[in-house]
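User: quick one, sequence for these tokens?
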């Protein structure tokens, strides 16, 4: 369960709530010279950057979604997993334009162990939403928003909406009410309004300002204690 948005105001601002069950995934916040990311420990023993920011303004975040058979993992050179594509983007091994070119030419599939969709964005505020087995959307609107349900074909994941889960509707209404002066503080207000508790609680919330090239983040819903990472 996660929430991700991009707001294209005077500053291009990204917000992300990382919601996860600690009994399933081991994670930690990692800061490097060119990368800020929420490291997810994988079977290879390494912490992978599936949710993070690069110094060049690339931001990628994977969000769990109920899968569809069209995106089932297969071993083929004509395919690329959504996780591999996302990590390459966060590592700046591919640019936004290259990512867009890849989704046009290759079949995007799930990783063997998880069904995910993604939002990629760059320092210009361009957004690429990719839903494996469904398609993709390129946009540069006032704001873009995604949670854990399909944006491109809502009926596919509508049966799986958790009762009382209004994160998308709440965040959308708040984002629509802001103007071009949308700030880092405003972004945190949106994230706090849709943060989760209990088993799938919000473990990390981060806001990235492209203008300042800085990441602001809080841990475990402690929005009164904001850490900063300057590229």
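Assistant:
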């Amino acid at each position: 369960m996660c929430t991700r948005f991009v707001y294209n105001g005077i500053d291009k601002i990204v917000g992300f709530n990382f919601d996860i069950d600690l009994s399933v995934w081991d994670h930690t916040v990692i800061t490097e010279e060119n990368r800020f990311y929420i490291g997810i420990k994988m079977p290879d023993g390494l912490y992978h950057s599936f949710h993070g920011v690069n110094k060049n303004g690339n931001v990628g975040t994977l969000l769990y979604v109920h899968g569809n058979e069209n995106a089932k993992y297969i071993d083929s050179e004509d395919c690329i997993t959504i996780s591999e594509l996302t990590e390459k983007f966060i590592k700046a091994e591919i640019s936004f334009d290259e990512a867009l070119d890849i989704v046009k030419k290759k079949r995007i599939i799930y990783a063997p162990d998880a069904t995910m969709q993604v939002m990629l964005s760059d320092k210009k505020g361009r957004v690429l939403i990719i839903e494996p087995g469904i398609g993709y959307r390129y946009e540069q609107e006032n704001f873009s928003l995604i949670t854990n349900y399909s944006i491109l074909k809502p009926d596919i994941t509508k049966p799986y909406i958790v009762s009382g889960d209004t994160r998308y509707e709440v965040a959308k209404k708040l984002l629509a009410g802001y103007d071009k002066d949308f700030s880092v503080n405003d972004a945190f207000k949106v994230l706090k309004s849709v943060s989760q508790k209990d088993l799938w609680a919000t473990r990390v919330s981060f806001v990235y300002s492209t203008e300042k090239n800085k990441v602001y983040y809080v841990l475990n819903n402690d929005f009164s204690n904001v850490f900063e990472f300057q590229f």
